[in-house]
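Students often ask why inverse folding is considered easier than folding. One informal answer: many sequences map to the same fold, so there is more than one right answer. In these notes we will look at a single instance of the problem. The structure comes first.
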């Protein structure tokens, strides 16, 4: 019967860029996937549109407006139960009507829902890298079975797929590729005048604003190296970033016998989304032209080392990864604030890295010993970055 055995999906961050890619796949394959719950931060009207389109039973607004009761009655008109706040988000992650929870929200508010989903034995697809970087220590031990946690981030999806049926203990090195962003070949002089509009033009991917700026500074790649350490249980020395302008290869695993696997697909987030949602199956996306990769004779496989003098954010993130402890959560908090300040025109592009580095240098406290400590360090990193920006007249 149509609908029997469909995978019931909840999408947290449904109104964002990755959320849309995930919902696109669910909409293309309604015989495989049934969306039963959706969540976002505060965009009630888009959430209601999506909830109606997919016929979901539950929706969650993390930060409802003052008109919370009106919002709830709007949803109720269509038979949708509206949940709110952190509790609402945690409930969505553990509903009996959900088999698979997708974490496609930005920021770190969904960390406790991620924990709840894993504890409730849901399958989980994870795009949200901030959570795993800041709190991996309190998330990864909750993974109960192989492939319960499936990376959605394109490079990590590639590594995860290279590791299908390969034990992590046989890995010698993991390489994550980066397009290099819009300023890959810019001189330091030219980089002085970068505007938010310049930095928001990514050459390969269309993404949310925060990750697009992180891609332009290469902070995104640094954060992704820490994400890979957590997801694939590697030391900082086991993960490396490589510039690969054509973005045809997303991730490379070198095994102990020096055999290498590379994974390639057209840069479109719907492809790793399909891989994560359908695992262990593979959806026949290749039947559609829009997903087809270029012919191999058109490939250009160039790889080079990133220039951490022009892109110091990558070096800062890798240093934070090596030292560990308080530094990854502080980095996440400081980066969020510095990127926002740049987007608002308060600081120049090249100052983003200074703000983050000074935040880390000025910290002299302890390592986090609980998830609450780690969450407090994220917000402390943000507050320290704010005061450095204010003191410097930004
Ligand atoms: P967007 O800014 O496009 O979207 C963010 C989404 O998260 C929105 O739906 C937003 O809701 C929602 N959200 C924010 N805070 C909360 C919260 N507290 N509770 C519930 N929902 C919340 O971001 P992206 O889609 O670009 O990125 C999302 C995450 O995925 C980030 O962690 C990013 O690093 C990662 N990622 C993104 C990729 C991409 O291609 N975009 C690729 C790989 C990883 P609202 O609309 O109400 O604000
Ligand atoms: Mg990525």
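Output (designed amino acids):
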């Amino acid at each position: 019967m149509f609908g029997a055995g469909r995978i019931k999906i909840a999408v947290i961050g449904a109104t964002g860029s990755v959320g849309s890619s995930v919902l696109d796949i669910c909409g293309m394959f309604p015989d495989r996937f049934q969306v039963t719950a959706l969540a976002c931060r505060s965009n009630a009207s888009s959430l209601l549109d999506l909830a109606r389109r997919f016929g979901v039973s539950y929706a969650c607004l993390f930060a409802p407006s003052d008109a919370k009761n009106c919002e709830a009655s709007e949803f109720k008109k269509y038979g949708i139960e509206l949940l709110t706040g952190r509790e609402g988000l945690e409930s969505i992650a553990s509903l009996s009507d959900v088999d698979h929870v997708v974490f496609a929200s930005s920021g770190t508010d969904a960390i406790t829902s991620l924990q709840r989903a894993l504890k409730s034995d849901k399958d989980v697809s994870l795009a949200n890298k901030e959570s795993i970087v800041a709190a991996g220590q309190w998330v990864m031990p909750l993974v109960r079975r192989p492939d319960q946690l499936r990376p959605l981030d394109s490079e990590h999806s590639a590594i995860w797929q290279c590791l299908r049926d390969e034990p992590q203990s046989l890995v010698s090195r993991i390489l994550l590729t980066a397009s290099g962003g819009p300023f890959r070949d810019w001189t330091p002089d030219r980089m002085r005048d970068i505007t938010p509009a310049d930095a928001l033009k990514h050459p390969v991917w269309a993404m949310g604003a925060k990750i697009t700026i992180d891609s332009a500074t290469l902070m995104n790649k640094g954060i992704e190296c820490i994400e890979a350490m957590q997801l694939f249980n590697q030391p900082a020395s086991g993960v490396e970033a490589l510039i690969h302008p054509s973005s045809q290869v997303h991730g490379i695993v070198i095994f102990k016998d020096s055999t290498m696997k590379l994974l390639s697909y057209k840069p479109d987030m719907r492809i790793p989304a399909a891989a994560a949602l359908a695992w262990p199956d593979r959806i026949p996306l290749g039947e559609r032209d829009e997903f087809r990769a270029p012919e191999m004779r058109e490939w250009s496989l160039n790889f080079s080392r990133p220039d951490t003098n022009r892109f110091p954010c990558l070096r800062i993130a890798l240093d934070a990864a090596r030292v560990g402890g308080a530094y990854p959560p502080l980095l996440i908090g400081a980066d969020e604030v510095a990127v926002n300040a740049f987007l608002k025109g308060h600081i120049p592009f090249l100052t983003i890295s200074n703000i983050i580095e000074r935040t880390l240098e000025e910290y002299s406290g302890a390592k986090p010993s609980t998830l609450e400590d780690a969450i407090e360090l994220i917000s402390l990193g943000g507050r320290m970055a704010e005061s450095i920006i204010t003191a410097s007249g930004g």
